[in-house]
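Fold this complex.
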Amino acid sequence: TQLLEQSPQFLSIQEGENLTVYCNSSSVFSSLQWYRQEPGEGPVLLVTVVTGGEVKKLKRLTFQFGDARKDSSLHITAAQPGDTGLYLCAGETNFGNEKLTFGTGTRLTIIP
Amino acid sequence: DVKVTQSSRYLVKRTGEKVFLECVQDMDHENMFWYRQDPGLGLRLIYFSYDVKMKEKGDIPEGYSVSREKKERFSLILESASTNQTSMYLCASTDPHEQYFGPGTRLTVT
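Structure:
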């Protein structure tokens, strides 16, 4: 079973600060997804990255897939209280088979 | 919008009881998944199904079984609930490359 380790596990910062969350594995993934989960809800997809070295931006969020497709990062610029939540990365081993391995999660709290 | 619904948001059961968790999706997806979510462990795959009456074990199937008699419905069964099955259970259905999750069922086994 592939493992995806996320760091940090918990992060609490002031509104307006920048932060980076990491997702690391020793396995190669054909694609990697990032989800955000709010209390009492299921995870919701933010982005999918497919190509090694790929960078995608979603407003203040920047996602990068490592060149070797083993790791990924999520960078948030000027964090806002609405960014608070549990962030999960998830890797797909065989492109298209839809079976994902989820990371351990990063619980982010933005303090107003 | 895709909608995935789960039969209960909160459930409390006693040790040894048989527990049914129901999941229904309305987008005609072929693939459906059951996960459990525990702090610090992320989501772990219990079972998944690629089609009606088809099922495959995930990473932690022990103590669980599933049923998929209709395309839109995927049930998770705990044959004899134990305290270590206290957890958040999440169901998902997928189109290519995106999993749509239900709101989850928080199960407590006492």
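The radius of gyration of chain B is 13 Å.
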